[in-house]
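Pilot study result, target chain (408 residues):
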Amino acid sequence: MFKTLDDIGSGKRVLVRLDLNSPVEDGMVRDNRRFARHARTVRELVDAGHRVVVMAHQGRPGRDSFVSLDQHAELLAEYVETPVAFVDDVYGDSAIAAVRSLDAGEVLMLENVRMCDDELPEKPPEQHAESEFVRSLAPEFDCYVDDAYSAAHRAHASLVGFPLVLPAYAGRVMQSEYEANTSIANREFDGPVTMVLGGAKATDVIDVMSALDEAVDHYLLGGIVGELFLRAAGYDVGYDVGGTELYDHQWADNEERIRELLAERGDRIHLPFDLAYERDGERAEVPVEDVEKDQPLLDVGSLTVGRYGGVIEDSAAVFVKGALGVFEDERFADGTVGILESIASSDCFSVVGGGDTSRAIELYGLNEEYFSHVSIAGGAYVRALTGQSLPAVEVLCESAMEYESVSE
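Predicted structure:
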């Protein structure tokens, strides 16, 4: 297991990796829950008297979202409630000079690490540890803290290189996300375990179902994957109409696996009873047996929400991956929001994962405190559910075995 902030002494030079990747509109970085979450780790490091240097990424080269982190420094400072200086350099002379000028309790943010050529190539940690980026920056620090769980599935230099050359620790986001997202495989619950599965990426959902098998008692399906399973069950849904390109290629890729899952676990797979669509600008609903799909279906219906809610009420644990409808349109948010409200009102252990689904909580004013954990991870959450390795977590564990605690 990895070490955490509890294992670090005080007064260290700490390099901390956050994931502050955010939506960008007209060049302006939008505030989001990542800043508030990561601020806890930074605040704790500041309070312990460390010199704190933050690494983070934003976008990818060639995209409009690939911008400097100067705005991120300002946003993070608001949540940490202490100034966050910024230097437009990653590991060159300007960055090194700024790092060396820090006093105890001060925070510095380096420029977007993806502006460094060594960062993005997916390589083994050993190769990243030998990069100019890591070899130039690591000697300026006593230890490394990784709080970027949502990027933990990436084998990038800032995530996997530094733990091989510095004592490495998990920040509070990394720690809480890992514990919550692996609980479906690692914990025992006194009652049924339910998964709510939706969204647009059917292959991800099918991978989760295949990997978890006996760990889940009920699968409640909606979204694209719900339609595809309904199609396999003989209903007139689950194919592209009106110019959509969401169904047919995923059906071709997954038909055999969908039919196998229905045959093997049909008693545990719950399919929508009704679906919603747009009629004359308003929401309309239709039972699945009466559907003649000639336009997009945009949400599960109210009967489905009610019956799924009954399953959730009797569950000891509920895990959510993906939205059940196009919740960005308030007319078609009933499925996603209704299920989240059912979870919030129950006393089950609950984990809501995937960027879109967790965004619905914020968009519709639900209180995060009513859920056991709301994940800010997407790809890493899926990999955790499917039991796949997370490179950044693996190297934290390796570092824990390799290095003694830096506490004195």
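One observation from the pilot: The CA atoms of residues 51 and 102 lie 6 Å apart. A full batch analysis is planned for the follow-on phase.
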